[in-house]
Amino acid sequence: MVIGRIADELTRGVEGITGSINEALFEPGIRLGVTGLARAGKTVFITSLVANMLDRGRMGHLTAAAEGRILASFLQPQPDVTVPRFEYESHLSDLTCAHPHWPDSTRAVSELRLSMRIKPNGLIGGLSGPRTVHLDIVDYPGEWLLDLGLLDQSYAEWSASVLRRLEGRALGAPYVDMARGTDTAAPLDEVVAQTLARTFTAYLHAARADGFSDCTPGRFLLPGDLAGSPVLTFAPLLKPDNAPRRSLWREMETRFEAYKARVVKPFFREHFARIDRQVVLVDVLGALHRGPEAIQDMRDTMQGILGSFRPGRNDFLTQLLRGKRVEKILFAATKADHLHHSQHQRLTAIIEELTREARERARFAGAETAAMSIAALRATTEESRQHNGQTLDVVRGKLLEDGRMAALYPGELPADPRVLLNGEEGGWLEGDFEAMRFAPAPLTLRPGDGPPHIRLDRAAQFLFGDRL
């Protein structure tokens, strides 16, 4: 058994080295991870990015496209045939049909390979012909990314931190009361264990719906084929003074450790550890609408997300000797089309301040980071209207709830984001800021143009433009 395991690990190591050599010498590849928390727009981001790479008329800030050096781009079968393919064609149809609608959100890992024929620039371009560069896009739920933080925690540490968090939230009261009334040193009763897990899972769903970001374990929200299994039947509990064998506490501890070993670690090994560029999408406007607690929770979550990455430079020898490390990370505030362009700079300043500590930690480790505000698919148009003697900059679009056309003036974001994020007196927007949800607008695209967007080309330039 031991010899077989060692041989298997050596085989995987040789395959990894061979793949790195082939990639570096013949057809370079970029593995771009796309993640974000609920309602951040991961599916729309990937769909619009691919559509705009296939028809590059709107990608003026992607240098290789602006210079005409991307001779062709096309979709190919992904190299990993065991991972579901990202349903690009279906999602694009959702966004571009006669009655467009937002596609279903990410519920599992999926991949898509976009291959590009690139004409090199400079002196090399005159000496060599076009080369192929593969962009492998990996889509995965943000909730699964947050689970990586569990690897550094014991069950006792995790339970204590979760219960402290729930005690400060009305949503968490039913579960906290149940946990306090449970004898955790008593022998395991499977009915009690399942009731605790169901109640805790109900809290996680409610917290996510209410805009909170720290909803782990992520598979409790997206269980897939693990639904009902013991590995998803645990919950945070008060640690007893003495926990005998076969007690409820011991069994919950065993299941927590099994979750890390059987669910979290395979995800890290098979998907996350091979990513070398990453974009984290953030619904900042939604958090602002929900208030100070949601924003502070989002800031804490960003710190946890950064701790899950292995940032650093991704030179050839580093890949061979230590494995890939994420070398570029973009934090993107989505839905910028819900604001007039005159406020985009303020939205960018908020995402910069929100992720400042996380980005500084990544830069210290050698990774390059950036923050920007984007809209992967523009759903609104801009107007100026007179109201009470004032000129208001508004956005106009179709409301998702009832299909009515409406012009929205959400209010002014503060010029100094620290006033908003640090909870200073008078810093919160109170009733002055309102977010609305817009449906995608019908599209009429000219030949060669992808879907309309805001700064998607700048995001692409940062994430992989240097490799083109």
TrEMBL record:
Domain of life of the native organism: Bacteria
Pfam families cross-referenced by the UniProt entry: DUF463
InterPro entries: YcjX-like
Protein known as: YcjX family protein
Species for this entry: Donghicola eburneus
